Amino acid sequence: MAEPDAHHRRRAQGALETRVLGALHEARGPVTAGWVRDHLAAGLAYTTVMTVLGRLLAKNAVTRRREGRSFVWLPAADEAGLAALKMRRVLDGEQDRHAVLASFITALPEGDERLLRALLEPGDD
Known about the structure:
Blueprint: H1 2-27, H2 33-40, H3 46-58, E1 62-67, E2 70-75, H4 79-92, H5 97-107, H6 110-120
Helix pairs in contact: 1-2, 1-3, 1-4, 2-3
């Protein structure tokens, strides 16, 4: 029974990472971890926000710089990068990546499928 709990916890952490990134995008500038915590208004502990920011930093999803005695945080990607991170989180949470990707591709509208194929073709930038 430990498996489903671990799976649920991974998804919950990914969802929190997405919410923290969303807050950083809404900030439109560098903010402190305290600002992120207050902005999310989810009753999160400061240490939880710092842990999430640290994980995002290790994944190169955010950057930080020292200002005075603390750090300020910024998203490393634009909104398209945030959407891509959300998509990757969903994919990472599934066991059969091949099946998920195949299902995703076949469910795309024709124009999106053509765009994806063009992006995957070598030599076309």
